[in-house]
Every structure is written in C-alpha cells, then in structure tokens.
Amino acid sequence: MDGVHDMGGMHGFGPIPIEPDEPVFHSEWEAKAFAFRMAVAARRKWTLDTSRHANERLLPHDYLSFSYYERWIAGLATLMVENELVSRDELASGQAARHSEKFETVLTAEGARNWLAKGSSTKRDINAPPLFKVGEKVLTNRNCPPGHTRLPRYARGRFGEIVIHHGAYVFPDTVAHFQGENPQHLYAVRFTARELWGDQGNERDSVTLDLWESYFKAL
Amino acid sequence: MTAHNHSHAHNHSDQPHSLLPTDPALRVKAMESLLIEKGLIDPAAVDALIDTYQNKVGPKNGAMVVAKAWSDPEYRKWLLDDATAAIDSLGFAGFQGEHMIAVENTEQVHNVVVCTLCSCYPWSVLGLPPVWYKSDAYRSRVVIEPRDVLQEFGVELPEETEIRVWDSTAEVRYLVVPQRPAGSDGLSVTDLVALITRDAMVGTALVTGP
Q1: What confidence category does residue B4 fall into, taking pLDDT thresholds of 50, 70 and 90?
Q2: Are the beta carbons of A202 and B168 separated by less than 8 Å?
C-alpha cells in the first residue's frame, strides 16, 4: 500500500525529536494503549502484519497527526470492529451491548510473561530451495500492491545485491489479509546510496532491507 | 454521544476510532472499561505486559551482550555468526527478538538501524523503542541522509567511514555492536555494561571511554 506510513526518503519532517532520559511510557494511557493492543492480539484473531496494516490504513491526516500510541489505539479500534470483538455502537457508547457476547479471557498475567519470554516465530521450514544466493544481483519490483507489503517505495525498481539469506518466513502480503502464511525465502538485500538516491547518496554508503523472494527478480 | 458528532465535525472519517473521544487519555479509558466488561482483557495481564518493559526488559540486556562480545573473542565470533543463539544463551531471547542479526561497527564501517515502515526494534535486547526511533523524522531521513542524522545525534564520523543503514522490513531484528572505546582495556564486564548506551546499540551514538 502506497501510504504515508512508507516514509523512507521523504522530506519535510524536521529535526529528530531526541528526548534525554526518556521514560518507557510518558503517561498511563500510553502504557495501557500498548498493553491493550498486545493483550487483544494474544487472542490470535489477527497476525502482526494484519495489525501493522490497520495502522497503515488510518487516513493519512490522522496517521500524521497522531502520536505513536494514538496510532496503536486507533488501529486497535479498527481491528476489533472488523474482527467482531466489539461493535461500532459499543465503541461509541463505551458499554457492551445488552445480550452481547462475553469473551473468555485468554491471556493471564503468567501467560503474558511466558509469551514475551518465549516470543513467537514467523520462520518456517519449506521444501522449496532458495532461488538466490549471497552475492547475486537482483532487481526489485516496480509495482506496489494495494494491500500490506514490506517493500518500501524508495527501494522499488532498484538494483541490489543479496548479502544474507535468512531462511523462509511467513509472507506479510498474504498473511495480513487472512490469505495464508505462504512462507517464502527472505534475504537481506543491499542497495548503494547512489542507486537509491542518485547524486544525493554518498558513494560509500548503503541501505540494506529484508526482502521476500517475490519482491525481486534475477538480473 | 458527543464522540459520534465529533467524527463528522472533525475529520469526516468513518473509521472506528472516530467513535471514541478525541483526547487520548479518555480514548484509552473508554476502551478499557469496554474491554474489561467484554472479557477481552485481564487487568492483571495488562499490568504484566507493562511491567515487563517498564521494569525488566530493556537496554541493559543488549549491553550485557555487547560487553560479553568485547570481553570474550569466542562469544564475539558466535554473536556475529549466529546472534539468535548467542543472545539466547544469555537468556535474552523473546518477543520481537526471535531472529537476531548482530552487526559490528569498526574503523571502516558504521551500522545504523531503522524501520521506515513502522517501528520494528529488537525488544528482547533493547526494550521498547524511544520516541526518536518511532518518529516520522528519523524514519524518513536516516535512509537518505544518514550522515546528517548522525550529526544531529552528535556522532561525527570520518568521511572515509562507510555507513550501512539497515531498514528492518521483516521479522529479523538488528543489534549494533559498537566499537569498544579506547581506555577501557582493564574494565570488567560489569563496568563495560555501564558505558554501553541504548543509542549506541541502534547506531546513533558511539560508546565513549570511562
């Protein structure tokens, strides 16, 4: 999706907001926005990529005017309504509708600690051998699918070189839309700054991105 | 409900969040009571999630990894070959750190990490990302003008240094192993840990000596 979230290389955002001695959360609501999103995600009604895409689908002016955790809470509202955990009326009233479904709590405190300690891998074993090897030169796709994707605008239609083969990982473009995991080989692909930015790029510098096999083709 | 009127007055959005109050603290409060009433969250789990990143998992983990790599050549080699296993051996595997790559800064190469599309960050070794890492300014600029961005952080690198930016677009997380500072030769792992900052492990700071 060619949205405002895909901001690599854009101009105009000003200086970096560096905050000395920054707390982990700036307020109770930030901490809760973080935790609610995590706790409801633990029901596994959607994946991390579905969740990322909910933020990407915020209206551009909302995305840009919201702070980070405002994006989280807005995205969570979308995810819960679309996956029928809450209704629009319930969100508007702040109260469960009479006779509405009550859910069993799936994430306990202990479950939360175990989940965070153990993690949740999206790496998969697949039979298909990798089509590319380290050192190979590739050309990335020019098109941008309208849904969730992880090939940023600035790296489309560019020549790069494979520097790491990571193994096979769940494919974000389909899993985000409930169309299956379809794991593919994933590679770190390096692009020179000159290739990405023309004369603006320093001749010594590069940007490396993790890209799925269908995001590029051989030269 | 005024929240409904607000959605029409303000942004013409019919997205669900526009049904909630505008003020973020009120937004979260409204959501909280609904989520509890519907059984969608357990307040004790919410507290555990917050407590983990507020008090337990943070940049100290990454600093332990780096200090060990500086002190133990075998560990350094393992970390650079298989960061996931080497980090797991110290007990710092976990959520958003399932698959790790460690990239080492040298006299010739300086590495810096970003997520231009969202906010991917190695939680299990660095905790939750700071505001600057998640900011639109950092996400947009560090890929196109890394030298200017590093200067804003006070990092001055020689013109000859090669800068490698890593854009975390997948579920692989990157940890920068900063250069060990001059004058730190005799220091213990514990003393080294105290020198290693979060920003140095993202690549937006250098580690300075004791």
Answers
A1: very low
A2: no
Mean local confidence (pLDDT), A184-198: 98
CATH number of the domain bearing residue A163:
2.30.30.50
Residue B27 scores a pLDDT above 70: yes
Taking only the tens place, the pLDDT of each residue in A112-151 is 999 999 999 999 999 999 999 999 999 999 999 999 999 9
The interface pTM score, or ipTM, of the predicted complex is 0.97
A195 interface with B at CB cutoff 8 Å: no
| Tokens representing residue B87 in the block | 């980090």
Shared domain check, A140 and A88: no
CATH 3.90.330.10 residue ranges for chain B: 58-202
As a whole number of angstroms, the distance between CA B70 and CA B52 comes to 27
Q: Which one of A32, A50, A86 makes the best mutation probe of the B interface by having the most chain B beta carbons within 10 Å?
A: A32
Average pLDDT over residues B138-161: 98
Task: Tell me which residue range forms the domain holding A64.
Answer: 28-118
| B166-200 as b/e: b if 16+ CB within 10 A | bbbbbbbbbbbbbebbeebeebeeeebbebbbbbb
Tokens matching residue A83: 């996956």
Task: Tell me the C-alpha distance between B142 and B159, whole Å.
Answer: 17
Mean pLDDT in residue range B136-162? 98
Q: Residue A167: exposed, middle, or buried by beta-carbon count in 10 A (0-12, 13-18, 19+)?
A: middle
Q: Is the pLDDT of residue A72 over 60?
A: yes
User: Is A94 part of the contact surface with chain B (CB cutoff 8 Å)?
Assistant: yes
Of the residues B71, B89, B119, B184, only one is catalytic, namely B119
Q: Which of A75, A92, A186 sits opposite B3 (nearest CB)?
A: A92
Q: Are residues A35 and A64 in the same domain?
A: yes
Fold of the CATH domain B58-202: Nitrile Hydratase; Chain A (3.90.330)
- Per-residue model confidence (pLDDT) at position B210: 84
Mean pLDDT, residues A27-33 taken together = 98
For chain B, say whether A199 makes contact (Cβ under 8 Å). no
Tell me, yes or no, if B115 is annotated catalytic: yes
